[in-house]
Amino acid sequence: EYEGDRNSEGQRHGFGKALLPNGDTYEGEYECGLRNGPGTYRFKNGALYTGNYLQNKKHGKGVFFYPDGSKYAGDWVHDQRQGYGEYLYANGDTYTGEWANNRRHGQGTYVYKETGSKYVGCWVNGIQDGPAELIHLNYRFKGRFLNGKPLGRGKFVFDIGCEQHGEYIQPVQEKDEEKEEEEEEEPPLLLEPMWKASEITKLTPWPSSDEE
Questions:
Q1: Where is the composition biased (Basic and acidic residues) (predicted)?
Q2: Residues 64, 97: one domain?
């Protein structure tokens, strides 16, 4: 069902309201039969998008309310979260920063509602990866992350005015001798990186060369 403007060829063109066969509804701008420009799309499952369209795809600025109560407000490119935006998760966590292909990608800040801790730094395909800072209530960790875990040199900075320098080391899984003869190579179990402290100092400036 459609109620609204049409062009001389009879295509939806201008402002209109539509009820789609699947029960979704759209109210907004059309161009030559396609959703184009600002509009509001209500999904039958309770989700809602209000924002810009380009040839039937979410494109430009828009806000999406998901059925689980989460919400994304920001940039879209061809129906994907892409550019800069803020996501409020169902559990109250938030992410504010860069996106690519629907995932957290680039620079961004993730705040954990339960603890108040926040991760400020690099993301690759939705995973914490690269230089970053993990900020807790009265101390923070500054270093690098790989696949969501801290790895390599870094330091803990405590609000009382001191620092603990050291590195996160990836422990190696001990091989089981009896299994070595078996043909199939089992993927090694990834153990949690372990912090190895080297020294405690008073507060020091972070060398700029490490930022690269």
A1: 1-12
A2: no
